[in-house]
């Protein structure tokens, strides 16, 4: 195995980190071994310059997880040099740019995680790709959120509103999201959907931005139309056609089942209503009244 090539594939740029061996286990996990050793320039605790004031103090075993390579999880068992400072009698561990301090997930995995958060995939899928947990991906998403500042002076003329299933960090079972109806870009994702909290959030936008909203496209949730009365004075509510059709289908199926239960299970009417329920949903103009097929 060419260990320099292995470091290149894993994105390890630390010259002090050496990979010594590696193998693929029966479980498909690529397990690498390596060591990290160097001469520190100063003590990170007291700041004393290393003029033979810092000595080697053994090794410590650590683990670093990397993103999958060829669908295989990669784990590096890294022995790090442990140091002792004669000046302050403190001990410290050798650090590497491959992974943050006190962490086991590599920086390359963190970078890949942020890149995949822009893709239309679930957090669980991203966690599987970067060999991490769902909660880790969620924390990366929350940290990335701090780098994006909401523009409180602008809202598009068309806004799409809907709810999504919340993560464990949210306060409720469902969260609220709204998008630009023209560009389909996500504007914000909120961990709540109650009317009081939504009004408080949207009032943070200035009046000119709220008056710029002309159309709100949403489902049949009774909460969102109330925002028009208080927050968006110039907007009108448009029900999404998908939710209208979905509501009609549910109502029709409930009526079909109600009528079906009026017949005995052995009757032809019962079997016809139960078997051909899809046919009853087909529009009349698409039906063929001349040919009959069993």
Question: How would you explain this protein's 3D organization?
Answer:
- The chain is an alpha/beta fold.
- It has 4 domains: 3-104, no CATH class; 115-145, no CATH class; 158-239, 2-Layer Sandwich (Nucleotidyltransferase, domain 5), CATH 3.30.420.10; 242-286.
- It has helices at residues 3-10, 107-116, 123-129, 134-145, 195-202, 207-211, 223-230, 241-260, 268-275, 277-280; strands spanning 17-24, 30-36, 54-69, 72-85, 91-93, 158-165, 174-180, 186-190, 215-218, 236-239.
- Strand 1 (17-24) and strand 2 (30-36) form a beta hairpin.
- Helix 3 packs across helix 4 (134-145).
- It is elongated and about 95 Å long.
- The N and C termini lie far apart (65 Å).
- The mean pLDDT is 88.
- This is Mobile element protein.
- Residues 160-293 form the Transposase IS204/IS1001/IS1096/IS1165 DDE domain.
- It holds the Pfam family DDE_Tnp_ISL3.
Short key terms for the protein model shown above:
294 residues, 10 helices, Mobile element protein, 10 strands, elongated, 26% strand, Transposase_DDE, alpha/beta, 4 domains, Transpos_ISL3, 5-stranded mixed sheet
Quick overview of this protein structure:
Residues 160-293 form the Transposase IS204/IS1001/IS1096/IS1165 DDE domain. This protein has 294 residues and is α/β, with parallel strands linked by helices.
What is the total tally of β strands? 10
Low-confidence stretches: none
Q: Into which percentage range does the β-strand content fall?
A: 25-35%
Number of helices: 10
Average pLDDT, rounded to a whole number, is 88
End-to-end separation: 65 Å
Order of helices and strands: HEEEEEHHHEEEHHEHEHHH
Judging from the principal axes of the Cα atoms, what is the shape? elongated
Radius of gyration in whole Å, from Cα? 30 Å
Compute the number of structural domains: 4
State the secondary-structure class.
alpha/beta
Helix content estimate: 25-40%
Q: Which sheet architecture does the biggest sheet show?
A: 5 strands, mixed
Assembly state of the chains shown? single chain
Protein name: Mobile element protein
Domain Transposase IS204/IS1001/IS1096/IS1165 DDE: 160-293
